[in-house]
Amino acid sequence: MLGFRSLSSSRLVLAHPRLVLRRLRSTAPLGARKTLQDINECVLNAKYAVRGPIPLRAEELKQQLVEEPGSLPFSKIINANIGNPQQLDQKPLTFYRQVLSLLQNPALMSENHEQLLTTAKYQPDAVARAKRMLQQAGGSVGAYSQSQGVAGYRESVAKFIANRDGEPADANDIFLTTGASGAVAYILQLFCSGPQNGALIPIPQYPLYTATLALNNAEPLPYYLDENSGWSTDPEQFEKVIATAVEKGVKPTCLVVINPGNPTGAILSEENIEGIFQVAAKYSLVVIADEVYQENGFDDVEFTSMKKVLRVLQKTQPGIYDNVQLVSLHSTSKGVSGECGQRGGYMELVGFSTEVKQVILKLASISLCPVVTGQALVDLMVCPPQKGEVSYEKDQQERKAIHQALKERSNLLYRAFQSLEGVSCQKPQGSMYLFPKLEFTKRAIDKAEALGVAPDEYYCKELLEATGICTVPGSGFRQIPGTYHLRTTFLAPGTDWIESWKKFHEKFWDQHRD
Amino acid sequence: MLGFRSLSSSRLVLAHPRLVLRRLRSTAPLGARKTLQDINECVLNAKYAVRGPIPLRAEELKQQLVEEPGSLPFSKIINANIGNPQQLDQKPLTFYRQVLSLLQNPALMSENHEQLLTTAKYQPDAVARAKRMLQQAGGSVGAYSQSQGVAGYRESVAKFIANRDGEPADANDIFLTTGASGAVAYILQLFCSGPQNGALIPIPQYPLYTATLALNNAEPLPYYLDENSGWSTDPEQFEKVIATAVEKGVKPTCLVVINPGNPTGAILSEENIEGIFQVAAKYSLVVIADEVYQENGFDDVEFTSMKKVLRVLQKTQPGIYDNVQLVSLHSTSKGVSGECGQRGGYMELVGFSTEVKQVILKLASISLCPVVTGQALVDLMVCPPQKGEVSYEKDQQERKAIHQALKERSNLLYRAFQSLEGVSCQKPQGSMYLFPKLEFTKRAIDKAEALGVAPDEYYCKELLEATGICTVPGSGFRQIPGTYHLRTTFLAPGTDWIESWKKFHEKFWDQHRD
User: Given 3-state DSSP classes, what are the helix, strand and coil percentages for chain A, each rounded to the nearest 5?
Assistant: First the structure.
């Protein structure tokens, strides 16, 4: 055993009167600091492009605009790289924020202050709601809740799901989570960990999935969405992906579906969903249904939940789908709520045994509980003011205005892309994104190669430097090799930025003609 | 390749008009549901006693009290199992909650409502503070912030640390996190993952550490705190633990220190801290300093931060400690804030290279950002109303009252334990817990063995069933084999529960005499 030097010698009273320290007499060999070599390789391998090099460069430029105004060819950064509506001036829903402010300061609800709240346009239903929710949280949003989430709020979620689907839902199957990303972390950690396990993920995908798989050292098993048929799925392809994985010794355990699609903006047909459940039933795959954009559908294509489709299949074809397990995710970050920073979300577990749910509960308990105000926001999202309640009309107006603005902006941007040389784009059906396909000339491809980046990354970087518009290259979401895309939100208000994008594109295209 | 059945046959229009589903013609072999056998073994192995079987039983009893009042020998559950002050009627600090309510509903700050805020006793400094903090958050707490946390709030943390320690601190080294548990997850995932890596953890410990190590499949390397010398550390023991680990092929990478101690309630001497840094310097260990109870010290023993000690060592003994890496954790859940449900926290990274910090930033970016209101609460915690500001006096009164109440309760409970047969307890110095040592008769030990539980677990279970007091057995925190303890908070108001505990104990002791 290596001897450790005695501490009991030569006291030194220092400038810091309370610190009595002793001199180490040996010159023990100095340990080195940790470097990248000492870091868990899985963490090093994880990639998350939505906040990757281009958004980081955008942060630098933003800082430069503060420190040296006028030093760049644009006056602000348009963060179209991430679905963050309130960063781009979307206003939060009034009812939500009134209730949350009362939860943070219940003193506002004391009897003396009724007049006061009226002046600030708090309706009695907001106060009643805050009282109910505060009581359900045990009297304070500053106390830890149950790790699974406040029971009363989970009841609200179960009612919402039952209404949405016309099928029963149980509060015991609901876990409130930190956004939807918290739920993804739990489920993949549980069922898809280590190189012998894999999860089928759509390509293109939201990079949370590949990043979380990388952290778990598990295998992403990509299945391609078909751009030409509105980003649809192909049952034959699932079979091929699974067979190839099994040949390589990887067991597929989960199948991720993002619907409405991120980054594609497409809504899956019920036929596609049925095909997914068939493969899930056959191969015992836990279906992870990322349905966080379920409120973000446009009128022409309606969203149907995976659970509803599953229940119908289970009823009409008894025996085939009985054992399917589904985890459906939702979030307060998207939809008309857009409350990203509040970190609310939930998952519904369908078809899980009590013992497995208990393991998930234990996992949740290690991080104690999701933020209670985020949980409260989930309750507000799934149970907004109802017809006949005082706040209903105003709330509806606000919702419709947000919905309408998003629809208009998506169409504007879609039409702009249609007008650009070398760009094609599927018509948006839902979510907050467009994912246009970019053709590049040989000259552009060579230029990118010379710079050591992919052509779409080169394009996005040039776009940022010229216009301040921050997007994410398709490579961040993966794509069919040899194809190029980018993801942009259509959240930014106004049309100036679209005009400047058009101008940039024309110039870029002209400069890179073969 | 396995063939997948064609979907294109026998359409069925169902009761659900929009769901057009097709009958699967094959009877493909049904996949089985996931069971415990399919779950990541690391997750199965993780234990978290603070919310383990005894607290779960307490939840059942709580439910029973609601459904059948009077059916139990007590009228309420005393949740002494977890440091959750606001669950036990501790009031949040007024200033914090006023600012948070304004952040949630900035409309309250419009000029028309000045009178209104005055009526509700909002002082102008609360409004000014909320305006500053809202602007720093980019105008809404509903927007994602930087993944590292709002820059302005990190500046506040750096100032707080600099004032506390008299040593500079840099906002770039601060990461705002989801409570302190979020920070622990990041650091252990980064540096201590896989069975070839281990972390030195104090025994007894807060079970977050063993649980997180289990999730990372890494080795806990226990070092024992010496109860008889106020739970002090022993430098020789560190050497032994490290040598034994290395012999077994495990590389120690981190060293966890909890100060003030959880569950011990003890404060480490500076001599002990110096010894810890010596071993860290010698063996390249990242020191994880869990300092979340730094505000919870009692008058007689003062808290000194690990960073302050490190900086003094670095100055007075140049060369020896230069390469030490320290992660210091703090949280809004404890102290006089007690805002557990708001999930605020931070970590300061000392001695880390830019490239390693960038990897941590990438990891943080995968979960997007910590809840922004929790971040705001960190800012409030580190920068409360200052002398001369309008809210200062009232805020100070509230703080002193909480501090005083905790001190009184800890003393009451400590004296109660001193009076009990077979119980000994170190004098509380800090944190929110007492960790008394229990002696058991052979009869009690045999009884526990017959029930298949450890003696301290048996005691805690009996205590719960007889009095409604929910505690955690020492085994949940680990302890020297053959010794028995329990952890209880001293947060519950009143003395009735202490009296009923005393009565229970006397009866238990009488019933189990040899």
Answer: 45, 15, 40
CA distance A374 to A279: 35
ipTM of the complex, rounded to two decimals: 0.91
Reported confidence tier of residue B267, pLDDT bands at 50, 70, 90: very high
pTM reported for the whole predicted model: 0.92
The secondary structure element, H or E, covering residue A11 is: strand A11-13
pLDDT range class, residue A12, cuts 50, 70, 90: very low
Residues B321 and B222 sit within 8 Å (Cβ to Cβ): no
pLDDT band for position B202 (cuts 50, 70, 90): very high
Distance CA B213, CA B222 (A): 12
Distances (CA, A) of A220 to A73, A191, B341: 41, 13, 35
Average pLDDT over residues B218-223: 96
| Nearest alpha-carbon partner for A93 in A129, A42, A57 | A129
Q: Are A5 and B259 in contact (CB under 8 A)?
A: no
What residues contact B164, with CB distance under 8 A and at least 6 apart? B305, B308
Give chain B's mean pLDDT.
90
Please indicate whether, in this complex, the C-beta atoms of B353 and A33 are within 8 angstroms of each other: yes
Structure token pair of residue A469:
């518009």
Contact A356/B35, CB-based, under 8 Å?
A: yes
The single-letter DSSP state of residue A123 is -
State how beta strands B484-489 and B437-438 pair. antiparallel
Q: What is the CATH number of domain A132-382?
A: 3.40.640.10
Residues 6 or more apart whose Cβ sits within 8 Å of residue A371: A178, A342, A343, A344, B178, B341, B342, B343, B371, B373, B374
Residue with tokens 């191969």: A283
Domains of chain B, residue spans: 45-88+397-511, 141-382
What is the CA A467 to chain-centroid distance, rounded?
26
> Given a cut of 70, is residue B18 above it in pLDDT?
no
pLDDT in tens, A181-226: 999 999 999 999 999 999 999 999 999 999 999 999 999 999 999 9
Task: Output the pLDDT for position A30.
Answer: 52
| CATH no. of B141-382 | 3.40.640.10
Residue type, position B318, single letter: P
Q: Which residue of B has its CA nearest to A309?
A: B19
Query: In B, which residues are within 8 Å of A358 by CB distance?
Result: none
Helix (H, G, I), strand (E, B) or coil at A27: coil
Contact B222, B54 (CB under 8 A): no
Rounded Cα distance between A412 and A437, Å, is: 17
CATH topology of domain A45-88+397-511: Aspartate Aminotransferase, domain 1 (3.90.1150)
Structure tokens at A298: 């446009």
**pLDDT at position B10, please?**
32
* CA atoms of A89 and A282, how far apart (whole Å): 46
CA distance A92 to A395: 11
CA A102 to chain CA centroid, nearest Å: 28
CB contact (8 A) between residue B104 and residue A100: yes
Note whether B38 contacts A82, CB cutoff 8 Å. no
Instruction: Specify the length of chain B in residues.
Output: 514
Round to whole Å and give the CA distance between A236 and A239.
5
Residues A283-321 have pLDDT tens digits of 999 999 999 999 888 767 789 999 999 999 999 999 899
The confidence band for A342, taking pLDDT boundaries of 50, 70 and 90, is very high
* Structure-token match 């929910």, residue found: B470
Mutate to test the interface with A, among B34, B50, B109, B148 (most CBs of A within 10 A): B34
Q: Provide the β-strand partners of residue A226.
A: A232
Residue B211, both tokens: 């649980």
Q: Which residues pair with B177 in a beta bridge?
A: B345
Nearest residue of chain A to residue B89 (CA atoms): A139
Contact A31 B374 (CB under 8 A): no
Give the 3-state secondary structure of residue A13.
Answer: strand
